[in-house]
Amino acid sequence: MNQRIKTYLLHGGLFLVTLITTTLAGAEWMYGSLFIPFEGVTKPLGWPEFIAGFQFSVPFLAILTVHEFGHYFTAKANKVRVTLPYYIPLWLGIGQSIGTLGAFIRIKDYINSRRKYFDIGIAGPLAGFVLALIVLWYAFSHLPPPEFIFTIHPEYAKWGLEYGKYAYQNLPEGGAIGLGDNLLFNFFKTYVADPARVPHPYEMVHYPFVMAGYLALFFTSLNLIPIGQLDGGHILYGLIGRKRFQWVAPALFIIFAFYAGLGSYKPADFAVPTDEAFFKVLGYFALYVGFLFLAFSRISENRMTSLLVTLSVVAAQLAVSWVRPDVEGYSGFLVFVFVLGRFLGIYHPATERDEPLDLKRQVLGWIALIVFALCFSPRPFLL
């Protein structure tokens, strides 16, 4: 067996496994149960539910695949050697996963051109975004009757369509997961869907096409964050050039980290009745500061600068929380802040050719940043 066939088998195998894991995960979201009969799972899912799970996995993987092949074919057009997409399956069988960590292509050449980085970076998210729009249009124009939710939660029937006022009152934190909002998602809910059929935010996870489309917007927004070597970083680097990007990217990263951690700790948290409780809060707070320091450790080669940035962000968060304790960010972004700051990087690799983009590319670049604004949700998931 030659190397090319082995490569195709690897990529195809990863895709098939990811199709299976996303189908499993999709069915679990749809039916609110699990395939593995753990204690407390009264009715494990079976083959009929697995087949139904394709309603999630097919549109979701289609969007992901179009995104990755947007990068792939544009790289080929620019004579840059790249691999086929590597799909990353992940299903643990305990719920609350989407069956994958995404996909990526590996660039095998040094890219020496600002324009090439821009072309390859922008092609993926724009291609995937177009398909996401189609999926969302279909999802919201084909919503089932509102009573559909009683097939998933028969216990809600006693409240009728007023279930939203009662069903979530005594749930523990994380007992239900809702889809947040963004400008585009809100548009589809308001202007495409029949308002009487739009489910409660905590129940949208049971609607596979809605879930697939929403996740596509969520991952598109993450990819388009204009920092480092994310797709948005390539786009902004192409638009403004290396010199300005090296100032803008760290500033945006600081703002992102500030928002993510805002409200995680407030001055009022330290007003506890006992010394033991105070030192416990102080210990967790120290771990949080250390976590942020690790995230900011690559913002400068000087460790003291990284520490000063960390302490400044923490001080600003405490100050805002003192003035407005009701204002909070979204702590779920902190993991991505850490991955971005520590591993993916805040800055962009330099290119030998720093040619400005032509007008067509500039227009596309700003459209991509508008797409980011339309897809970004300040609180993507409600717990």
Automatic annotation (TrEMBL):
Subcellular localization: Membrane
Coiled-coil zones: none
Gene Ontology biological-process annotations: proteolysis
GO cellular component, one term: membrane
Major subcellular site: membrane
Membrane-topology descriptor: Multi-pass membrane protein
Entries under Pfam families matching the protein: Peptidase_M50
One term of GO molecular function: peptidase activity
Transmembrane residue ranges: 86-105, 117-140, 205-225, 245-265, 277-297, 304-323, 329-351, 363-382
Annotated ranges, domain Peptidase M50: 56-242
Keywords recorded for this protein, A-Z: Hydrolase, Membrane, Protease, Transit peptide, Transmembrane, Transmembrane helix
Cofactor(s) in the UniProt record: Zn(2+)
Family: Belongs to the peptidase M50B family.
Name under which the protein is recorded: Site-2 protease family protein
Organism: Spirosoma arboris
